[in-house]
Known about the structure:
CATH superfamily of the largest domain: Periplasmic binding protein-like II
Keywords: Signal
Number of helices: 26
Family: Belongs to the bacterial solute-binding protein 1 family.
Protein name: Tat pathway signal sequence domain protein
Number of strands: 25
Organism: Lentzea guizhouensis
Largest sheet: 5 strands, mixed
Strand order of the largest sheet: 7-5-9-20-12
Low-confidence stretches: 1-38
Mean pLDDT: 90
Amino acid sequence: MGIELNRRTFLSAAVSAAGLAAMGPLLSGCGGSAAQRAGVNSGTGLDAALPAYVPNTAIRPDIPSVAGGPDVLTKPGFLGYPADRVATVSGVPGKGGRYSAVTPLWGTIPPADNSFYRAMNSALGVELDMKPADGNTYNTIVSTMTAAKKLPDWIQLPAWWNPNFNTGGLAGSQLADLTPFLAGDKVEKYPNLAVIPTAAWRAGAWGDKLYGIPCFSSGFEIAGTTFYRRDVLEARGITADQVKSADDLMDLGKELTDAKAGVWAFDDVWTYLFTTFGTPLKWKVDNGKLVHKYETEEFFAALDWHHRLATAGYVHPDALAGDSAGTTRFYAGKVLIAGNGMGAWNLADHQSGRAANPNYRRGAFNVIAADGKSGPRVDMGPSTSVLSYLNASLKPEQVEELLAVANYLAAPFGSAEYTMVNFGVEGTHFTMADGVPTPTEAGKKEVQAQTYPFLASSPAVVSNPTGDVVTRDLTAWQSANVQTLAKPVFWSMNVSMPQAQATAEAAQAVEDTVKDCYRGKKKVQDVRDAVATWKTSGGGDRLIAWMDENVLQKHGTGQ
């Protein structure tokens, strides 16, 4: 993530909450024809709708990206804030229009009509009435707007809430079709938008038409991984490359656990480790047949291993009890291995860890195959889960004006525009301290980095001012594991399904039993029984049949 997000807890909290839901198809439950209108993205149709990718080298990172395959790219690293703030937009993008904009905000909402908003309007050439809303209740706030058909001109709709918002149903009815303005080479009119990876635009496409503008996009998006206390393990002669299988991890559990000393090897690791057993994230295709993860023996093998890990006494008792304060246990050295989302690896974590222990250093094991023999693989998520949309009632010239504004907002990390968008006016909202934009008192009150970038932003980078070790470690880990990223079945296809299937897809009763199993409270057979019930009376078989008939057979796998 960029410097502006590392100083806040938004992504580590929100993305972790979204968890694996963001890694599968973006499901939008629907009961009527409106949602069905959006349909499912297909291959050739989507290719014609997506903007072209045009790279830009105006600002060069200290640690360049490394490609891992189609749509896979590590995040570039910056060891300092660029000193030469290059301007990437000529003149003022807007033409004096007046628009309303709503974004979620996990933090203190700034005063209305403050000096930062006024300065931004002057820079953008429009009157953009920013109305940040409480992120904790955003899903209900937006749903009220859509029900009344009173959306603002520009709105942020995080993809993890697509089922709540029925985004697929809003596409083409309340949300503007951007395909005529951005498809193919048309995006070149907006150079900063053209730098956004093509894969990121897929997350905002519905029924082979483009609706969403990506924010914080990346070619390296996974749900999370298995972290470890690098300082502690390396002091004991244990390095990440020594862990190559599930057996190695189990052996570490025995070696590192000392209950009498209040130290356990593991916190919760299921969420980010179960796929190493060959379990699909959600779906796989076997000889042309669609198979749900619950139908695979690999899934139950993963459960068996995690159940044994818990019952062997290698998992912290509080984690087994469902206590979510795992990060605190990790800082204190009470647990040494823990699963978490990638948003956990940042400057704030480094600072908090060092406050607890001056030697603190987060590390992550390389992606492994549980058997130690198969090729390691981790499923990719969509290149972004944060997208904004324009109102369908806007006139074409208004859409073009707001796309020009989006082009300004999407300027690359460290540029003049990026600095303005994220930090405000130098001398008023920030000053440079040790080469880093540092907020003034006015900046702390008025500038929220979760505001304008939620409408449009440049691709994500890794930057941790004063914490270069974090940037070097994270970018090195991504480079070492970039070849293991692979697209899961139905990757970024934005499937709109009937409500009954959406409910079955959540499979809450099964997931509750799974949780009890990997915490050692129930047995693997209990999960098998829960799955059998889900398939017959919980709608599981109907879900699988619906996905096979309406998605796989008609549109393929999306891979």
